[in-house]
Specification:
This protein is mainly alpha-helical and about 150 residues long. It has 2 domains: about 110 residues, Large-conductance mechanosensitive channel, MscL, domain 1 (Non-ribosomal Peptide Synthetase Peptidyl Carrier Protein, Chain A, Orthogonal Bundle); about 30 residues, no CATH class. Helix content is about 55%, strand content about 5%. The chain has 4 helices and 4 strands. Helix 2 crosses helix 4.
Protein backbone atom coordinates (compact mmCIF):
# COMPACT_ATOMS: atom_id res chain seq x y z
CA UNK A 1 0.00 0.00 0.00
CA UNK A 2 2.90 2.36 0.82
CA UNK A 3 4.39 1.77 -2.62
CA UNK A 4 1.08 2.57 -4.26
CA UNK A 5 0.79 5.87 -2.36
CA UNK A 6 4.41 6.72 -3.10
CA UNK A 7 3.88 5.96 -6.79
CA UNK A 8 0.71 8.09 -6.87
CA UNK A 9 2.50 11.00 -5.16
CA UNK A 10 5.31 10.81 -7.76
CA UNK A 11 2.70 10.76 -10.53
CA UNK A 12 0.92 13.81 -9.11
CA UNK A 13 4.12 15.74 -8.44
CA UNK A 14 5.48 15.18 -11.95
CA UNK A 15 2.75 17.47 -13.22
CA UNK A 16 0.56 14.90 -14.95
CA UNK A 17 -2.41 15.54 -12.68
CA UNK A 18 -1.97 19.30 -12.83
CA UNK A 19 -1.63 19.20 -16.63
CA UNK A 20 -4.77 17.09 -16.84
CA UNK A 21 -6.71 19.47 -14.58
CA UNK A 22 -5.64 22.50 -16.62
CA UNK A 23 -6.60 20.65 -19.80
CA UNK A 24 -10.06 19.81 -18.47
CA UNK A 25 -10.70 23.40 -17.37
CA UNK A 26 -9.53 24.86 -20.68
CA UNK A 27 -11.50 22.18 -22.53
CA UNK A 28 -14.69 23.11 -20.68
CA UNK A 29 -14.21 26.79 -21.48
CA UNK A 30 -13.40 25.94 -25.09
CA UNK A 31 -16.54 23.77 -25.28
CA UNK A 32 -18.66 26.80 -24.35
CA UNK A 33 -17.14 28.82 -27.17
CA UNK A 34 -17.62 26.01 -29.70
CA UNK A 35 -21.20 25.41 -28.58
CA UNK A 36 -21.92 29.09 -29.12
CA UNK A 37 -20.22 28.94 -32.53
CA UNK A 38 -22.40 26.01 -33.58
CA UNK A 39 -25.67 27.29 -32.11
CA UNK A 40 -25.30 31.00 -32.87
CA UNK A 41 -23.36 31.08 -36.14
CA UNK A 42 -23.12 27.74 -37.99
CA UNK A 43 -26.66 26.46 -37.38
CA UNK A 44 -28.31 29.72 -38.52
CA UNK A 45 -26.12 29.71 -41.66
CA UNK A 46 -27.07 26.09 -42.38
CA UNK A 47 -30.68 27.03 -41.72
CA UNK A 48 -30.40 29.87 -44.23
CA UNK A 49 -28.91 27.55 -46.89
CA UNK A 50 -31.43 24.73 -46.26
CA UNK A 51 -34.48 26.97 -46.32
CA UNK A 52 -34.94 28.04 -42.69
CA UNK A 53 -34.32 24.54 -41.30
CA UNK A 54 -33.59 24.89 -37.57
CA UNK A 55 -31.78 21.79 -36.32
CA UNK A 56 -32.10 22.69 -32.64
CA UNK A 57 -35.86 22.19 -32.73
CA UNK A 58 -36.00 19.09 -34.96
CA UNK A 59 -37.42 16.13 -33.09
CA UNK A 60 -39.81 13.21 -33.24
CA UNK A 61 -42.39 12.95 -30.48
CA UNK A 62 -43.00 9.38 -29.35
CA UNK A 63 -46.73 10.02 -29.29
CA UNK A 64 -49.68 10.26 -31.65
CA UNK A 65 -50.02 14.02 -30.94
CA UNK A 66 -48.14 16.76 -32.78
CA UNK A 67 -46.01 19.22 -30.82
CA UNK A 68 -44.44 22.38 -32.25
CA UNK A 69 -41.41 22.47 -29.97
CA UNK A 70 -39.37 20.12 -27.83
CA UNK A 71 -40.30 22.17 -24.76
CA UNK A 72 -43.99 21.74 -25.56
CA UNK A 73 -43.60 17.95 -25.88
CA UNK A 74 -41.51 17.76 -22.70
CA UNK A 75 -44.04 19.77 -20.71
CA UNK A 76 -46.71 17.31 -21.85
CA UNK A 77 -44.50 14.49 -20.53
CA UNK A 78 -43.91 12.97 -23.96
CA UNK A 79 -40.61 11.31 -24.82
CA UNK A 80 -38.85 12.84 -27.81
CA UNK A 81 -36.08 11.78 -30.20
CA UNK A 82 -34.11 15.01 -30.54
CA UNK A 83 -32.19 14.33 -33.75
CA UNK A 84 -31.68 18.06 -34.39
CA UNK A 85 -29.81 18.48 -31.12
CA UNK A 86 -27.78 15.42 -32.05
CA UNK A 87 -26.83 17.05 -35.37
CA UNK A 88 -25.76 20.22 -33.51
CA UNK A 89 -23.68 18.13 -31.10
CA UNK A 90 -22.10 16.21 -34.00
CA UNK A 91 -21.11 19.50 -35.67
CA UNK A 92 -19.82 20.67 -32.30
CA UNK A 93 -17.69 17.52 -31.96
CA UNK A 94 -16.20 17.84 -35.45
CA UNK A 95 -15.18 21.45 -34.77
CA UNK A 96 -13.62 20.60 -31.39
CA UNK A 97 -11.80 17.58 -32.84
CA UNK A 98 -10.45 19.65 -35.74
CA UNK A 99 -9.23 22.46 -33.47
CA UNK A 100 -7.57 19.97 -31.11
CA UNK A 101 -5.92 18.34 -34.13
CA UNK A 102 -4.54 21.72 -35.23
CA UNK A 103 -3.37 22.47 -31.68
CA UNK A 104 -1.57 19.12 -31.26
CA UNK A 105 -0.07 19.47 -34.74
CA UNK A 106 1.45 22.84 -33.82
CA UNK A 107 2.76 21.51 -30.50
CA UNK A 108 4.38 18.58 -32.31
CA UNK A 109 6.01 21.02 -34.75
CA UNK A 110 7.47 22.96 -31.81
CA UNK A 111 8.76 19.75 -30.23
CA UNK A 112 10.61 18.71 -33.38
CA UNK A 113 14.00 20.27 -33.19
CA UNK A 114 16.35 20.82 -36.06
CA UNK A 115 19.38 18.56 -35.85
CA UNK A 116 22.30 20.30 -34.20
CA UNK A 117 24.78 21.77 -36.67
CA UNK A 118 27.82 19.65 -37.33
CA UNK A 119 30.69 20.71 -35.18
CA UNK A 120 33.81 21.92 -36.90
CA UNK A 121 35.89 21.28 -33.78
CA UNK A 122 37.13 18.25 -31.91
CA UNK A 123 38.75 17.52 -28.58
CA UNK A 124 42.52 17.03 -28.43
CA UNK A 125 43.06 13.59 -26.90
CA UNK A 126 46.19 14.78 -25.09
CA UNK A 127 45.38 18.16 -23.53
CA UNK A 128 41.55 18.08 -23.85
CA UNK A 129 41.27 21.49 -25.56
CA UNK A 130 38.95 22.15 -28.49
CA UNK A 131 40.74 22.33 -31.84
CA UNK A 132 39.74 22.49 -35.49
CA UNK A 133 38.74 19.23 -37.18
CA UNK A 134 41.29 20.04 -39.89
CA UNK A 135 44.20 20.37 -37.47
CA UNK A 136 47.00 17.80 -37.72
CA UNK A 137 48.79 19.18 -34.66
CA UNK A 138 47.29 20.65 -31.47
CA UNK A 139 48.12 24.38 -31.22
CA UNK A 140 47.96 24.16 -27.42
CA UNK A 141 50.15 21.16 -26.60
CA UNK A 142 51.72 20.67 -30.09
CA UNK A 143 50.89 16.95 -30.05
CA UNK A 144 50.77 15.21 -33.44
CA UNK A 145 47.16 14.17 -34.18
CA UNK A 146 46.27 11.05 -36.14
CA UNK A 147 43.35 10.58 -38.56
CA UNK A 148 41.38 8.43 -36.10
CA UNK A 149 41.11 11.19 -33.49
CA UNK A 150 37.62 12.70 -33.27
Amino acid sequence: MKNLLKEFREFAVKGNVIDLAVGVIIGAAFNTIVTSLVNDIISPLISLVTGKLDFSNRFIAVSSHHYNTIAEAKSAGVATVNYGLFINNAINFVIVAFVIFLFVREINKMKRKAPPPESNTKLCPFCQTMISNKASRCPNCTSQLGESVT
